[in-house]
Amino acid sequence: MTHRPRQLLCTAALAGAALVCGPALAQLPPADPSSVWTIQDENASVSSATVTDRYYTNGLRISWASPTDAAPDWLAGVGQKLWGNGRQRMVFDLTQQIYTPFDTKVAIPPPGDRPYAGVMMGTFGLISDTATSRSTFTLGLGMVGPAALGKQAQDFVHSVIGQKKDFGWDTQLNNEPMLQITSSRVWRLKTGTIGNLETEALPELTAGVGTVRVYALTGVTFRVGQGLDADFGVARVRPGLSGGDAFTRTRKFGWYFFAGGNGQAVAHDITLDGNIFQNSNSVKRIPYVGEAQFGFAVLAYGARLSYTQVVQTQEFRHQKGGLHQFGSLALSVRF
How many whole angstroms separate alpha carbon 262 and alpha carbon 260? Predict the structure, then answer.
């Protein structure tokens, strides 16, 4: 496994640039007294893909977003210095991601195939909303390796659905603690109407630095529907274009279809490069990754249900099967 300090430092600088966009006066949305709970699952079986257990196999996430203006004064002050005036929310989530090789029927995956890896991370963050933008900063702590319970989670699901177990989990990445810092901003750009339908573009910049992944992402989502001012796009398990979990109720019923894409420059990914402080399996990472995504969201009765289909380019050399596909299903409920 090799490391590129200059790339890491450059991408860390991008993370800082994405975070500190400069305080500015902005129009504020109305205060929101409700919190938002979200459960989300990403899996190739929730898609049109015919092979389900390969590469990014599953991502399960549970999150909570506070009402607006609920952050302690000292934390709200930090957010105001970073982003200026905004409606702030605290966010917490717990995420587990599972990665497997292409060939899951052998005890020792062949050289060049993606390593088995489980990632478990708890994240604390702060969201700041204006009428036209959403800025997010998160700090995540977690584990990679057997302690992330990737094997146990996958074996349980396979036993429930009657699918055979994967054989190579004894070769997974070793236990290592992880730290991840991520910063992002999404802008809401209204692009007119089509009859009684609203249209918008949601350009996004994201940067992350840490032992899990060092990367920069830029992309845009286009959407059409009704009630678009309720959110900033659907949520994704990062990395990926994500409008976040928090949404407001601006009408009794809202909906939209969306499509977009992003490009990612990746300087480090522990699930591909292998353990940092120990020897482990690894593959040759591709430094540039692209994604296309499309789907829909429905907002009604204080809930938002969304589905996203993701098509992803190869992440490492000699990756088999062409473009990787998975589906992302999320339910968010206001309380």
Answer: 7
Distance of CA 75 to the CA centre of its chain: 23
- Cα–Cα distances in Å, from 164 out to 53, 116, 301? 11, 16, 40
How far, in whole angstroms, is CA 35 from its chain's centroid?
20
Give 163-172 pLDDT, tens digit per residue.
888 999 999 9
Fold of 5-334: Lipocalin (2.40.128)
The tens digit of pLDDT for each residue in 163-219 reads 888 999 999 999 999 999 999 999 999 999 999 999 999 999 999 999 999 999 999
The length of the chain, given as a count of residues: 335
Could you tell me if 118 and 151 are in contact, meaning their C-beta atoms sit under 8 angstroms apart? yes
Distance between CA atoms of 37 and 66, rounded to whole angstroms? 9
| Token pair recorded at residue 144 | 């990679």
How wide is the angle at C-alpha 85 spanned by C-alphas 83 and 90, nearest 5°?
70
Q: Tell me the pTM.
A: 0.89
- What do you get for the CA distance between the two ends of the chain, in Å? 47
**What whole-number distance in Å separates Cα of residue 148 and Cα of residue 61?**
13
